[in-house]
Amino acid sequence: MLRGTLPEPTPSTAWFWEAAARGELHVQACDACDGRHFPPRPFCPSCGSRDVTALRCSGRATLHSYVINHMVPKDGDGPYAVAVVRLEEGPMMMTNIVDCPQTPEALMLDMALEVVFDRVSDTITLPKFRPAGAAASGEAA
Amino acid sequence: MTRPLASIVGAAETTRLGVLPDMSELDLHADAALNALADCGLTPADIDGIATAGENPAMLAQYLGITPTWVDATNIGGCSFMTHVAHAAAAIQARLCRTVLITHGESGRSRVGNVPWTVPAHSLMGQFELGYTPTMAATLFTIPALRYMKTFGVTEEDLARVTVVQRQWAGFHPRAFRRDPVTIDQVLTSRMIAWPFRILMCCLVTDGGGALIVTSPERAADFPTRPVDVIGTGESVEHLMITEMKEYTASRAFKVAGDAAFASAGIARADVDHLMIYDAFAHVPLYGLEALGFVKPGEAAGFIADGHTAPGGRLPMNTNGGGINYMHSGMYGMYALQEAVRQMRGTAPAGAQVQDAKISVVQGVGGMFGTAGTVVLARR
């Protein structure tokens, strides 16, 4: 199973990782200008307001762009996509696409995706995405 | 055209380029610096301004025996050296110093005395990107390309052609790492790195360095070398994390830096005789040609296919072969500047020298499309 460097949360991001561990994906919403942002920060990069709150996402996204990395780490399986998805709520985030062949034919830009949660340590659960409606494989990555 | 902001009076690369396991990164800086000083007849005692990226300029000053009154350690990736030229010009005009040394040295391939680029796990990049196992530039800088290709109908053949055309230029340069002619088919059957990018669409990983000596336009006439005037500069930053690039089909940093440079130089796109666009990967010159306004969005691949950037074309681009063919130690910007200086001095190798070229635009990029620096040079 593919394992990248594990994130180390900071005081301003811990809430995001705590929510992910519960199986919830959040972005940040600005109550002053209605901007939505990711990654989280304790203010809004659109208007500068500190009046920001967590917005729980639907988990729906589309595949915005990606590459299929052939420089596979020693402990990793075959070539894999390093992808960027556009969340239904607006922001983009990096991820891996799971439950899907890692081929240009299967990974079509703009395809509908849904979030799945990959628990990689006691504190870190990585949001990943699979084709919408795909049958769960029993393993997230 | 406006009055020059500064002049480049000394320019040199390291004595050797390529695979240099016998030289440390610091020694690559020093070798380039000594070559540039010799180029214009100076010694370290003549230098009162120093700028570099990656290496600490204090270490470099100590090593070379320089006592500066102005120091710039700006490090925004491979375009840092474009910003050093801009900052040096401003510092000279503000009388903070008179003669600036800008150096680059990098043991990118051999990793001798190398200052590695690290991403801490608690940084935003560490938290929100590294868990998905990108293996740095080749899988981050390249991510926007598929969106660009789908939007504009650009093909893998179009990406391959960037390498093929630039290889024609590299063939004129004895010091280029990859010089033999290459076909689109050869590029498209070379080893896969990160689809759609094959290894021949990716920059080299080599060892080397370069240095520039910058002074005022007035003093430039006192040097033995033909001065190259800096007539415009621009710089900008868009993001560090590729997920925060606003549009995957265009670079905001390129556009902001380029527009500022053209405005300060007081020139039009049609005035440009020679162009260098930092080509970390084959898609970057496509974004650059469009962001700088030489073609409209989506037209760059066709512009290259029509031969306009190739030898004999009306906008010769990346005439050293680029980072894909000539040299790329990790931060390529210095080598693009060196080639532009050669072109404006009229000292590029036979075949590569653009006849009667009077204005050169050098476009740098840093990070993963995140930063940019633009320098406009003029023949005196």
Automatic annotation (TrEMBL), chain A:
<feature type="domain" description="ChsH2 rubredoxin-like zinc ribbon">
    <location>
        <begin position="17"/>
        <end position="52"/>
    </location>
</feature>
<feature type="domain" description="ChsH2 C-terminal OB-fold">
    <location>
        <begin position="58"/>
        <end position="118"/>
    </location>
</feature>
<dbReference type="InterPro" id="IPR052513">
    <property type="entry name" value="Thioester_dehydratase-like"/>
</dbReference>
<protein>
    <recommendedName>
        <fullName>DNA-binding protein</fullName>
    </recommendedName>
</protein>
<dbReference type="Pfam" id="PF01796">
    <property type="entry name" value="OB_ChsH2_C"/>
</dbReference>
<dbReference type="Pfam" id="PF12172">
    <property type="entry name" value="zf-ChsH2"/>
</dbReference>
<dbReference type="InterPro" id="IPR022002">
    <property type="entry name" value="ChsH2_Znr"/>
</dbReference>
<dbReference type="InterPro" id="IPR002878">
    <property type="entry name" value="ChsH2_C"/>
</dbReference>
<dbReference type="InterPro" id="IPR012340">
    <property type="entry name" value="NA-bd_OB-fold"/>
</dbReference>
